[in-house]
Amino acid sequence: MPPRSASKPSKKRSNPDSVTSSATGPVPSAYSKKKASKEVDETDKLFDKYANASSGVIDPEGIEKLCSSLEVPHTDIRILMLAWRMKAERQGYFTKGEWRIGLKALKVDTIGKLKKALPELEKEVREPLNFRDFYAYAFQYCLTEDKQKFLDTETICQLLDMVLGSTFRAQVDYLIDYLKIQKDYKVISMDQWRGFCRFCNEISFPDMTNYNLELAWPSILDDFFEWLREKQA
Amino acid sequence: MSFSQNREPITIEDGFKLIDAAVTKLTRIIEGKPEPPFLPEEYIGNYTIVYNMCIQKPPHDSSGPLYEKYGAILQAYDKLTILPSIMEKHDEYMLREVSRWWEINKIMVRWLSHFFYYLDRYYIARNGIPSLTVVGMTCFRDHVYEKVHFNVKQVVIALIHKEREGQQIDRALLKNVLDLFVQNGMGNMERYEKDFEDFFLTETNSYYSRKASSWIQEDSCPEYMIKAEESLKKEKERVSHYLHSDTEPKLVANVQTNLLVLVAKQLLEKENSGCSALLRDDKTDDLSRMYRLYHAIPEGLEPVAVAFRLHVTAEGNSLIKQAEDAATSGIVEEQVLVRKIIDLHDKYMAYVTDCFQNHTLFHKSLKEAFEIFCNKKVAGSSSAEMLATFCDNLFKKAANDKSNDDSTIESTIDNVVKLLDYISDKDLFAEFYRKKLARRLLFGKFSDDHERSILTKLKGQFGGQFTSKMEGMVTDMQLGKDQQTGFEEYLKNANTGKPKGIDFTVTVLTTGFWPSYKTSDLNLPLEMVNCIESFKAHYEIKTNHRRLMWIYSLGNCNLTARFDAKPIELIVSTYQAAVLCAFNHTERLTYQELIDQLNLSHEDLVRVLHSLSCAKYKFLKKEPASKTISKTDSFEFNSKFTDKMRRIKVPLPPVDDRKKVVEDVDKDRRYAIDASLVRIMKSRKVLPHQQLVSECVEQLSRMFKPDIKMIKKRIEDLITRDYLERDTENPNTFKYVA
């Protein structure tokens, strides 16, 4: 069969429930426009502090600087959450537009305020509907090539730890063990990625008594289930 | 009594006196005592008394009292005469009494009704009261039947038991007595049923229950069945002799339940004589009996069909095991095994058609049994491969040995098609068959008729798509003959003559029909190059826009080798010929030189050199003279070679590619599954996972049994390729992405 994308208008992100984070903002009026432009100025100034002068975007180095300003580790999930808020498209980079969107949504314009806003952001992201979206975004964010659809298992292990580690420690540990040991899957698709989250949310662990092999769980989870069962025996 | 009008009305007292006298006379007559019969005048006179008494003017109109009198007469007779006589007797004598008095009573009622007939005409009709006959019957029922029926029933049942145990009894008597029960129901079967039949059936139940218990212990299955059949026959006779026909179905069901249904498992599984043993030992009569007996019972055949299936499965499994055990060094004797399976099929199909009357239940059992063991692997070979190899050998032998008559070949072909039906991996069979067909068509003789015949039958059974490629291959061979004639014409006409004087035949294969073959960049000897070129020229004239791909690995050559002793004709493959011809110009060549000159792969060259220098016929001398080819060897033409034959065929052993066939089929299956999934989702739009999987399996079942895990993986792949998506609300349901 010919690859589907050849006959369809190519979408960069082909997910049906693509990233949709609400972007609210104040309705511009004469006074608020002035205020808004003042805010934008502050935001832009902040942006320039971290952006690379020649490229005009915040690059990985800039992000690292940002992280130390925020006193947050470089690999912390909150940076990813921030990226999600910004609807950042490229891993490791923030454009000016994205920066503006993000900070506006958080209603902050200084580093101090941004730092204070992080717990609020985290709470917001962890709301079930937002989290689903954020979770899918996390996968997409890591795709580097244009038509790439898979992530290697190494990256997935790191992502799992970051995104689900705090809530589902046990499951994540076992999943990572499995992913490292198994040889059948070298890459993971979005559907499988989503399956992991569903698994953690729906299946009681570690007994997994409500797991059903006859349902439409991705095969990798069937294999994981059988592997773990054998281990437990 | 004269007919003249009486002036005086008859009083009740007088009238009754006259009637009593008549009754006394009547009873004497019907009881068989010496008494002159009624004269016609007496008869009429009796009637007239009643008549007159009825039409008399009040207060002497006596219809009412007469009606009462009638009833009283009969009641008295029943109570005082009939009943005591019966009660005096016992057993069979009592039955006879009952029967006798029943007849007498009938006559009594009849005659008395005649006397009192006038009442029937007017008094009874006008008042809507029971008729004379009804009064009579009711009287008997209430005053005789009700009192004696229990004992009568006991006696009857005891007699029936006697008859069952083999003794003679008076059947006519029983018939009369039981008829009595029926009649005393007065319009319905209640009395018969409640006062007799129920008890009879209970007694029958325990009787046959006991018999079943003892027979099942002592008798073999055939003996038991004969007894059961006999019992049923006897009971049916019993009904026709004296039981009411209504009893038959209940009786038969009763006997069947006790003798056949409740013991079915024990009976059928009896060691050494049960269903299994009968099948093994060809006991068709017993099996037919078994079918007859159980067919008559609703759902009775099921345990028999199960026993049949288990037996056939066991037989099949043991054949498989035998073959597995006999397979030495991983090579299975599929000729023997397939023949045995065919024979097994014929044997048990015969049972189905003969003993089991072609019943669908048994066809199904046979199919299920064969499907179980026909899909087992033997020493690593799948049944699909074994069947394909079987066909290959069959046709090769048939082409070489024309003495085999066609009808046996045809019937074997029919058997093969039947067996294929039981094999789930039909596509695997097709692929193996195709590979072997290619070899048959290209190397050696084949019978066009046989090849076409099996393809036609396969097409009929499994559809055109199954056989289209293979048919194409056979057609190619046919067309090839015409093409060759055309080519030879061309050579003649083009005045080129035979290129370098070599007879050259080309077979053009249509890509797609034939298995895919590797091409190689073999450097042919010059003489052969010319042949190729001349054919190319001819073909380009004949056709447009067709590309020829030369597959030298499939060709063969006849060479004349001039050995010192005598020239010998060698029939070899093109590769082998190329290697040998290399020695036309040089005495000695090293392995490396041969590789450079011929441009063969190492694998191929090693094989070829081995066949020419280390095998049975050593046309080339190898230095060093070891058993294997190494890259440092060198070779020389062995002029000293000779053999008593003038013609030697040197086969190049084919590369066994079972693994490749399996891989190719797996790949095709993945495409087939994808196509099926997309087809289903396109039409259904939304479908839950389990349904999608089962529909997919259903669609593909004609060709193979898809692995569920593979289907799941294909679904996931289709999701990644944006053909399907999971429903956001319910991740177990899929939606088609338009």
TrEMBL record, chain A:
Pfam families: Cullin_binding. GO terms for cellular component: ubiquitin ligase complex. It comes from the Eukaryota. GO terms for molecular function: cullin family protein binding; ubiquitin conjugating enzyme binding; ubiquitin-like protein binding. Residues 38-229 form the DCUN1 domain. One of its GO terms (biological process) is protein neddylation. Residues 1-41 are annotated as: Disordered. SUPFAM superfamilies: EF-hand (SSF47473). Neddylation of cullins play an essential role in the regulation of SCF-type complexes activity. This is Defective in cullin neddylation protein. The lineage of its organism: Eukaryota, Viridiplantae, Streptophyta, Embryophyta, Tracheophyta.
Automatic annotation (TrEMBL), chain B:
One of its GO terms (molecular function) is ubiquitin protein ligase binding. GO terms for cellular component: cullin-RING ubiquitin ligase complex. The keyword Ubl conjugation applies. Keywords: Isopeptide bond, Ubl conjugation, Ubl conjugation pathway. Residues 382-613 form the Cullin family profile domain. One of its GO terms (biological process) is ubiquitin-dependent protein catabolic process. Pfam families: Cullin, Cullin_AB, Cullin_Nedd8. InterPro entries: Cullin, Cullin-like_AB, Cullin_CS, Cullin_homology, Cullin_homology_sf, Cullin_N, Cullin_neddylation_domain, Cullin_repeat-like_dom_sf. Signal peptide: none annotated. Gene3D superfamilies: Cullin Repeats, Cullin, Chain C, Domain 2, Winged helix-like DNA-binding domain superfamily/Winged helix DNA-binding domain. It comes from the Eukaryota. Belongs to the cullin family. PANTHER family: CULLIN. This is Cullin family profile domain-containing protein.
